[in-house]
Description:
CATH class: Alpha Beta
Bound molecules: 2-oxoadipic acid, magnesium ion
CATH topology: Fumarylacetoacetate hydrolase, domain 2
Structural class: alpha+beta
Helix content: 25-40%
Order of helices and strands: HHHEHEEEEHEHEEEHEEEE
Number of domains: 1
Shape: globular
Strand content: 25-35%
Amino acid sequence: xxxxxxxxxxxxxxRAELEKKEVTRITIExxxxxxxxxxxxxxxxxxxxxxxxxxxxxxxMGLTSQAKMKQMNVExxxxxxxxxxxxxxxxxxxxMRDVIHPKVEVEIAFIMGKxxxxxxxTGAQALAATEYVIPALEIIDSRYENFQFTLSDVIxxxxxxxxxxxxxxxxxxxxLELDLVGATLSINGEIKDLGAGAAVVGxxxxxxxxxxxxxxxxxxxxxxxxxxxxxGITGAVLLSVGDTVTAKLDGLGEIGFKxxx
Length: 261
Ligand code: OOG
Ligand code: MG
């Protein structure tokens, strides 16, 4: 690719995350950056973290809602990776010092019981390979100025992944109609947004199937034990110091965290 060093760009984005400094998006200088090369940068960024001793919890899907896909003018979601250092316990605290301009969204996470290998994986097959579902709050924190980016930018930046709160109560997926699960996102007791599981490409299991099919293009698969964020059910809401965030999901319970300085 002309003039863009994949490794140096991955290092630049990783540093922005570690130093909590927003940076100019890559496509300002390199408008030609393709989705394929953006995933190469992401892969390099993931290796940097693995070399640092960080462990992968699982992949995450992003831009799975009609609203976000339309906004970004894409037909396919994107993926990134959640690492162990990103986990905040349920009821725990997000320190504003650790992030740049965080937003929160409600999601359903899938805990995989079996490997899932594409191409051609269906939502029903993804559901059959799932051991449990749990409620989640994802904190996204684009490393780019003003949280603004193109599709290639956000892929290179590990899909804005920053922190995650997982619920402790695990539920068997077959006991719920996951597309009909309603969810609310409240801050300081006031509902800021709401949605249903169907907001995630019609059903959250479809998101896992799409992930398996996307990974198959690289000869990879969804693995047993992966904990997968399937994508925002609600919109993403900007966080401030002092916020108490609560998500309530039908049949999955309530989870939350606080935002401190
Ligand atoms: C990209 C990440 C989106 C989701 O659930 O849609 C995402 C972004 O909007 O910054 O995590
Ligand atoms: Mg998300």
